[in-house]
Description:
By secondary structure, the protein is of the alpha+beta class. The protein contains 14 helices and 18 strands. Helix 2 packs across helix 3, helix 7 (123-140) runs parallel beside helix 14 and helix 8 packs parallel to helix 9 (271-280). The longest helix is centred in the last third of the chain and has 29 residues, at 433-461. It starts with 5 loop residues before the first helix and ends with a helix.
Amino acid sequence: MARPSRHAAAAALALALSGGHTGEIGHIRIRDLDCAAQAVWVHGSTRTDARCPDLAFLFFLTARSVLSSARRTAAHLEDPKVWTVLKSGVRAALGQAEAARFPEWGPTRSQWLRAQRRLRENSHELWEAYRPLALQQALDQGIFPEDEPRSWSNPQRHQLIAADGTVLKSPTLARAGQSVDLTTGEIRYHRIDPASVAQFESGNAEVFGPKYVFFSARKGAGYMTRVILDSRYVPHLHPGGEAAAAVDGVIDIMSAAPGCMGTLYDGAMRGVHRDAIARFGGLVINKQHKGNDPQFYETLRPGRCGHELWAANGRIAEKVHFADGTTELVPVPIKKLERRGTRMFRWYHLLAIPCRHGLHEHRVSVGTTSRTGERPPGESDEERGFHRAEHLQQIPEFTRTHQLIYPYRSDAESGHAQLDASLWNGRLISYGVDAQQLLTLGFVLAQNSTSRALHQAGTLLQPTG
Length: 465
């Protein structure tokens, strides 16, 4: 005897209990089993499920980032205990009227798939609406405090943005819409991701997928307390590449958060990018590009002595001649990092040049490359052919301050690792920029929700009095 199908078994059970018609029977789920009453509650099609507000689908999007599967997420949200907690949060934050719009259980997978199309079309607008909320959360958690003392030569972790770009693995290995089997001549068609291209990450490793830049900051010791402030897609052949997109994001955050002092980034930021942020008043703390050879800067003659100054390893060094005919570039001690200006800023190193005739103080502009018209004729860096922002850093790489601060950039790498771990098999599950931006929004919502919960728990556990 053939085993009855699930639908046939459900229909027979419903007919026996209620005398209903099989055309009125939908799917019977776990929540339809009433063990206490020894009964099965029969309902119509799943399409008759109560309509969920859009906020419920944002809950679904966030939970999917943690659970890695829409089917698993729907099963969790069907749990009355889980759904009650979410409704309680809505009631506490938005009021009883908004909580009353939520049905008795969470969205089903089919409801999510339908709602996802609408959310995908508005993913850009969702990100635009969320960016100020993420920044406000960071401010509430003590990040970028405006009233806190600031030291430009020794910024603190919670005063800086940790940013970096990453290539997410394409949802498919196919790079062309069709291929030909060379043995049979059969033409095979493939689904491809329009946002994915072959790109190179650190170590010249090729990764096929779209590139995104993430911006985050944190104050607490735990990495889960970080707040992700923004995420931006970097189109292929974007003018300026990843670093140009990062500059726009950093300046946008600094414009909205006066307590933000700058950013930590890797070697992808070159002089032109550092120049833009420095002119805006921010620090760029990154490693010097390895291809930069020492450049002659000037010969300083303050009196009876002479000092030949060069730009090397991101700072001013003096060329010292030894008796055996060899020379060495010795870094000149930096006494102070100065920031001057109001709307457009300039940065200077106050040098303390050692000399047998006595110490010489000399001020050198760093971080920005002066353009024609900004200095007297013939004196601008552009006319001299000297790319100052490329060769002279605000906080040079081989200094104690740089060695203490630059490791904070690992926050960005940690965030990328968490994102990869949240993806099914480490690959994107979405095709196209709109869908992928929706996915990254869900990841950011999950991370920032965790950060807020930990911050609130820490605040409550602090001793009073």
